[in-house]
Design a protein that fits this description.
Blueprint (H helix, E strand, L loop, with lengths): L1 H15 L11 H18 L8 H14 L6 E3 L1 H7 L7 E2 L4 E6 L2 E7 L4 H4 L7 E5 L2 E2 L5 H4 L10 E7 L7 E6 L8 E7 L3 E6 L6 H14 L4 E5 L8 H7 L9 E7 L8 E2 L12 E5 L6 H11 L4 E4 L7 E7 L5 E10 L15 E2 L4 H11 L6 H9 L3 H7 L3
């Protein structure tokens, strides 16, 4: 009887929803029947009876369904949904490049930032977090897990993870990175007339910081600019659009949002006023970790023929997520739309292709990462990095 009731309930939802071409509506019934058949076979035959509650099995099935859609959609278990009501609780750990979540069987890795230590170590979203530095996580309240993971740059956290792609748990050692507090991490003049600005994040005040940096470099004689967005992830969309303002005519459409049915929101435009005319040559550097706001910036400047893009194909994060409350105290983090650059292109799942491709090997990536935190290096290591020739930077300079 339980199987029939579950089937009817889910089938009713399927029939009420709009058809999803090219899958015919009647295809829902055999698929749902198969799901229920598997569900009941598991409950009947699996020996771990304490893991077979309908609530647990269905929630984990939904977790897998959301994870199969894209890297940014996820199922939020009731345990985590309740914790999210606490506005003071921030489960994101920028120094490790991951976000924790909570489900019935304990804490897990809810999301992995493309440019963080976790991604570099191959940590997968959905992995169960079993231990932190040898201490079992089930013995600790979720809110108290965040403290031990808030270490200083250069320190190491050892996590025992049960990956969905591996049969046995494995330990990973993650070195905490520097988390930039300022959006403009570096601004300097090189070769007397070529300016260099590295953006760490499109955070609050990014546009203001960018303009101040440009003012200073221009006053010192800058005639061309390299904007470095390598390793730069997301940020505030409005700040991203405003940051494009110095380089484009006032009121230029730079970003649009498209939903499921192809409906397009009003394009977001650069500010109506411009303090200075900044029409000097511009090169933008990107790599495979440049994501979201970086991709929209590079894509807009590329589409409008304002800049040459140099480096690697970017990460491919050009989507909008909403939190949708669901029944049973659960919720969804669901991708509901995509961002598009002026040409109509979206970086979603494919990234921005540079005008000049320059691949970086592992040694070059490590050197660039050290270059970004050069003030923390010892004298010998700093000397080595000072002498290193950045191949992407070299290619960018050659375009002027």
């Amino acid at each position: 009887m339980k199987s029939i009731c579950l089937l009817c309930g889910i089938a009713s939802l399927a029939s009420a929803a709009a058809p999803v071409p090219p899958d015919p509506e009647e295809a829902a019934y055999p698929a749902i029947e198969r799901f229920v058949e598997v569900l009941e076979a598991v409950r009947k035959r699996h020996p771990d009876v304490d893991r077979l509650a309908y609530e647990r099995l269905v929630n984990h099935a939904l977790e897998g369904m959301l994870a199969s859609l894209d890297p940014h959609s996820s199922f939020i278990h009731p345990e985590m949904a309740r914790l999210m009501e606490n506005k003071d609780l921030d489960a994101e750990l920028p120094s490790l490049g991951l976000t924790l979540g909570l489900r019935a069987d304990g804490p897990y890795i809810a999301a992995v930032s493309p440019q963080g230590p976790a991604a570099a170590a191959g940590v997968l979203p959905g992995s169960g977090l079993l231990e932190i530095d040898g201490r079992k996580t089930q013995e600790v309240e979720f809110a108290n897990l965040l403290g031990p993971l808030g270490r200083s740059p250069g320190e190491t956290s050892r996590l025992l993870l049960k990956s969905p792609a591996a049969p046995q748990p494995a330990e990973v050692a993650l070195v905490h990175r520097v988390v930039e507090r300022r959006s403009v991490a570096e601004a300097r003049l090189r070769d007397s007339e070529i300016g260099y600005v590295r953006l760490a994040v499109f955070g609050k005040g990014c546009a203001r910081e960018m303009e101040a940096a440009l003012d200073e470099l221009e006053d010192r004689g800058m005639k061309s600019l390299i904007l470095d967005l390598r390793g730069t992830g997301g940020g505030d969309l409005h700040e991203t659009v405003t940051t494009l303002g110095p380089f484009l005519p006032p009121g230029t459409a730079v970003v649009t949002t498209r939903g499921r049915e192809g409906d397009t929101a009003e394009p977001m435009k650069t500010p109506d006023r411009q303090r200075r005319k900044r029409d000097y040559p511009l090169v933008v550097l990107i790599d495979r970790m440049s994501a979201s706001a970086s991709e929209l910036t590079a894509g807009a400047l590329q589409d409008l023929k304002r800049a040459k893009i140099v480096g690697e194909v970017s990460y491919g994060k050009g989507s909008v997520q909403n939190i949708l409350p669901m029944g049973g105290g659960t919720a969804l983090r669901l991708t509901v739309a995509t961002y598009h650059t002026p040409s109509g292109n979206t970086p979603h799942r494919k990234g921005i292709t540079p005008d000049v491709a320059v691949n970086m090997d592992d040694a070059a990536r490590e050197n660039f990462a050290k270059r970004c935190r050069i003030d923390s290096l010892g004298p010998d290591e700093r000397k080595t990095i000072d002498a290193w020739e950045d191949p992407v930077m070299k290619a960018g300079i050659e375009l002027f």
